[in-house]
Structure prediction request, 171 residues.
Amino acid sequence: IGSMVARRATGYNMEVIYYKRSPDPEAEKTLGVRFAVLDELLAKSDFVTLHVPLTDETRHMINHETMYKMKRGAYLVNTARGPIVSEHDLVEALRDGQLAGAGLDVFDNEPNIDPELISMENVILTPHIASATHEARDKMGGQAVAAILDALSGQKPQNLVDEKVWHNRNK
Prediction:
């Protein structure tokens, strides 16, 4: 998803810098992007978009400390997973002008969204619909069909959620 966002942004002649655990020289060459350590990315970016999975390491990775390392007046966009951003800290950063605005499609505690966040005029909230594109839905359908075919042929489906179900299938 991050690569797709970068491709679109560079199409508008935006300078795109990215952060991940290790640099990706192939992506840099193909997409025309530049790797930066997180603190540099936060300090230089006008827009920070999040495209990471939710793990113990990424839970509330965007919090008071990281928001106040961001360029003053920047925008934050989260379409990844809600708990990556501390909503309490986000409200504070938006209220005092550290961040100019935010766009959120996912929330820390869905469906219970911070009421103050809902009332802020510099925030755009969408009801967890970032994947509502023809391409995304086609891909999801293809993955579902592949999982069914795997199971019917006796192979463990690739994106199995509950391993116990697979291990107990013949009982």
